[in-house]
Amino acid sequence: MAPSFANKLDALSAWRTGLESRLKELSRFLFDHDLLDQPASELLDALTQRLAGEKLVVAFVAEFSRGKSELINAIFFADTGRRILPATPGRTTMCPVELSYDEDETPSLRLLDIDTRLHNQSLGELRGHAAAWKQVPLNVKRPDQLADELLQVMQTKKVALDVARELGFWDDSRPHDNPPLDADGHVEVPAWRHAIINYPHPLLKRGLVVLDTPGLNAIGAEPELTVSLLPSAHATVFILAADTGVTKSDLAIWRDHLCGQALARYVALNKIDTLSDPLSPQAEVEIHIARQRAQTAHTLGVPETRVFPISAKLALTGRVAGDADDLRASRILALEDALGQQLLPQRREVLQQAVLDGIAHIDAQVGRSLTDRRRQMSEQLLELRGLRGKNTTMVGMMLRRVGTESAEFEQCISRVQAMRAVHTRMLKDALLTISNDIVRERTELLQEKLRGAILNLGAKRAFSEMCATLRSRLSEAQTKGSEIHEMLGASFNKLNAEFGFGLSAPKEPDLSRFIRDLDLIERNYIQYLGLTHALRLSQGRFMEQFRRMLVSKLRVVFEGASGELELWNKSASAQIDSQLRDRRRNFKRRRESLERVQSASSELEARIHEVEAQEERLRELQSRLATLLQALHAAATGPLPAAAALAQSQPLAGTVASH
Ligand SMILES: Nc1nc2c(ncn2[C@@H]2O[C@H](COP(=O)(O)OP(=O)(O)OP(=O)(O)O)[C@@H](O)[C@H]2O)c(=O)[nH]1
Ligand SMILES: [Mg+2]
After folding, report:
1. Cα–Cα distance between 162 and 151 in angstroms, integer?
2. Is the residue at 256 inside a domain?
3. Which of 23, 36, 184, 318 has the fewest CB atoms found within 10 Å of its own CB?
């Protein structure tokens, strides 16, 4: 049987760890041999961090009681031997629950009070404020205690009607959707706004983040879930119940939150065990399941292969009891395989490209610097060998020549300085185009316009206009980046021709991925602004949260683009410094050699040997660099490590997957 999702994720993670250690080896090698300039070192650090910190977010979305939490238990927690996340009839999970692992923190459940909605801070901002969260330590060795603590995600509280209104859980214009009002005029609302479980599960340790959500069409859903958490998930599993089929509210959730998203979507038709009936033959039940699957695919507009009839309950009980028949009947492996087969190769491709780009960069920069140093050594050898059999007058002449050459070379300094001045000015100008002030100004302007917007249409238009302005800023920065590239290219050619440098401008800076990120933010927010309850939330108190949420998202894009431009420019100009240093060192070496030869003719052969040895060392470094880069390339593009071997070394993950 094909390895399940758990095994595949393991293999991907082992692949990442392998690449990480090869990158570290490369860094160490470059550092030890004085080949690592600052931009190259930043690039390698960023790459290693990206590989280590890479997250894979899978969100489970559905109307309440469809079995989201049960399915998460079955896929990820069966190895604990019990139900970990609460899953009960009726509304259970009251706030979004994020499961992940951060090894710098102890295992814990963190809960954010629902009242934080009354203040301006967005969820994103509050993540960094430890004091805003109630922190409950988790005893991971005691699954029963763990499950007890996690019951807190079910907590609710009673509040007065006006508080419920302020919190966003009561809407006078949509009376049918409002929760019941009790005899004292109180409304039951969730106690928490968000929960984060830090749990050292092998899969979470490997960068998986699981997002369990409460029934989403409920009034008062956290806007951040719609505009940020769900759209940035790498995959969503939408769950329906086979006993209810696709209901109107299921369809509303699908349409509002999952329809038209580019992300990978899977549909689970859960609870197929409820269709079994002692009075009907199994073949009839099968026909019934097949029919439901086809209907579901048709209603949601997805291929039938994306709809997975499953039973989360049988999967969980089957795994806990080690009952292979139940597990087979649950059909969970088909869903897990699909998740593993489609999702993980996509993630791998993205990381692989980043590593290959890094290799190309190091190869170009460091490789060139080594070739250049070798060339200088060869020239020096030629010079020294030419002195064989010559007298000291000749050596004196050579010394004077080195002096003249060195003085001529130093004239390049004023040229380099002039080029630097132009470069600094151009870069400053490019960075100004995409400064944080632009984001702030534009979002404030949007806020003004949204305040006046009565219809969603107006809000959408204002938002699109803002995005268009921001996009044109990014494109402008891209053009300016290309102009810098051109300017440097031309200046480098001149410096190479006149002063014997070996400079070459790196591949043009590329900001297209930031433009794509902006497009994605635009799509998500536009979709959110289209929801009926969005405008209500976008007014008053929620408006400020909305703006802050947007600003922080846009900042990430703009700061990312600025960072990229800056790093590119640093790396392009760092070669000038290192080549200047090399050239000067070379002149000094030549002068010293000649002086030694002048003082004692026996020194010539010794000096020739020395330079030959140095050249040989450079040749070795070149070939070791090539070997390291080739090995990295092979590791990045080669097959994933065998999952079976990993399962053995990771007993817990093996337990989850081995059934
Ligand atoms: N028979 C059957 N019951 C299931 C299955 N999956 C879940 N259930 C039950 O359905 C009920 C709801 O499951 P949950 O996992 O709490 O559903 P949820 O989607 O997380 O619901 P909320 O947290 O309220 O949004 C629980 O009683 C589960 O035991 C299944 O495959 N078969
Ligand atoms: Mg739940």
Report:
1. 28
2. yes
3. 184
